[in-house]
Amino acid sequence: MTEQSVETSPELVAFGKRVRKERKRRQWTQESLAETALSNRDRKGYISEIERGKRPDITGETIRKIASALDIAIEEADGAIIVPSTDGETDRTPLEIRLDSLGEDAKRAADNTEGLQETLRAIQAQLAATTQYADRDKKDLLSDLQVLAQAIMERDVPVSQLSGILPEMLKKLADLRSERGNWAGMSNEEPEIAPLLQQADDALAAGPGFSLETAEKALEAADRRYGEIIDAREEQAKSGKINRAKIIGKRAEMAALKFAYLEAADLYQEQAKLQKQAFGRDSEEYAFSLNEAAVNFNDAGLHRKAEPLFRKGLDICQRVLGEDHPDTATSYNNVAGCLNAQGHHSDAEPLFRKGLDIRQQVLGEDHPDTAQSYNNVAGCLDEQGRHSNAEPLYRKGLDIRQRVLGEDHPNTATSYNNVASCLDDQGLHSDAEPLYRKGLDIRQRVLGEDHPNTATSYNNVASCLDDQGLHSDAEPLYRKSLEICQRVLGEEHPDTANSYNNVASNLARQGLWGEALPLFEKAYEIISKILGDAHPNAQTLLYNLNDTRAKLGLPPHTPT
Question: What is the mean pLDDT of the chain?
């Protein structure tokens, strides 16, 4: 009798893909992972089968061990292990990438004024190189950054959430200021709260008097007093609810600006109740408040709380705007993205496809949002291990961006890297290499050499060459990536430590253990100083260091 094979579940296939990506990002061999996670380096074949989705019988305990070694977050529900998804390379502006390093600096500066000033100088230096803020008054900009940097440090925002956060904060602040002076009607209607509204307006003005705390307290007091006024009325006028909803909305914006996402979500839900009472259940205002509440729950990592709010927003768009509307397509993508974040890729896929279908019909093929939808569907397929299905959609997104945005655009470079990564996942390294090189070429021209994304592209090309066994060709590119990280991010930065490790690992593959040793030592020194000896990344680098020392007949390094 022929033994019937057992098919590996999509979740385990996706987990294997995550394991391979995280292992390669850390420059680990399969032997290293087997030793670290399973205490047996001879089980590298077992690791290989997991990565290729060939181990349907993997136990939950083994998944936990491997996930812990690679610092992969997992969730457990109803006895099942869920591996949350990770998005591919996102489309970020040059400014967002320039400020990538600032979160680490801000966090280290939290306990002393001198550190805060160092952080502000670093932020100024980054912004000075960005023409987007060239016309801003330097004193006003510094005043803004002092308040925003303080908000970052007071909230102790994790490094993983800081990438590109300052540009978004500055944008939100600009939106707040664009509506200054709009309280006149409300002030005339309720003179009692007029001084509080004026105080909030004055505190939001650019300059040395800028204070989020003062503005927030003034609006909180205005909201409280206005609530008392409304409650005291026999009939709550519609205008009163609308006005109070505006105040609550501003409070929510300020909470989100300071990373208080749960507070912001609660405020938006409170605003949504007033919007529903004032405008009705099928209003754009009500849908907007629901969506903002969902976005903030998502930002807080509470995807299950966000999902029903996103679905309510989609329901309103369908009833009010109809299926064939760009906002309805965006709502489909919001629900799908929330499902994807929970690891429900097969449920997210048809919704991503529906969003793509609407954008094709309404916006046409040659539109950046349509290109983004192609990437959304492709990324969802990638998460399910369906790389051959994802590839043509990534290529379609690239084709649109080439026509609409042109070759010399950061998003086009991102699409080249997405296609190359998909080919890499299929083992087609020689096909991936020229696309990685094209992405590098664009970033060199558009972003310049001294940019973290350019460093990433150098590393992508080098890793692809390494996968082809071309270690000596990969070495100078790894070294170039390290040089950029040193100049742009500084020595004491996790990405710089990883670059040291990448160069050292490449030398080790060439058998140059003596040359690799000081670089492994440097990588471990940086990461242990920043994150501590007990951090998983520090433990990984310590393993690499001691493995090299053993090859050279030296005793292992022991942390002091």
Answer: 82
